[in-house]
Design goal:
72 residues
Length: 72
Amino acid sequence: MVSVLTDGAPLGPVVLPDSFVSVLIPLSACLGIAFAVFLWYRVSEISVRGFSSRNGGREYLLEEEQGAESEV
């Protein structure tokens, strides 16, 4: 519990009004979702070097996997 002191006299615990809390929680959730979508978009723009789905990317990955198995 948080107590606030003004001029040395305790005022008691700080309590947010219900209307403030009922707006703050959904607003925070929407902000978090928007931030997650923004990060997803930013990361999706990064291209992986050496991989192209149009130029036989699947075959490239299979060759890499088979090469790793032969080294073991």
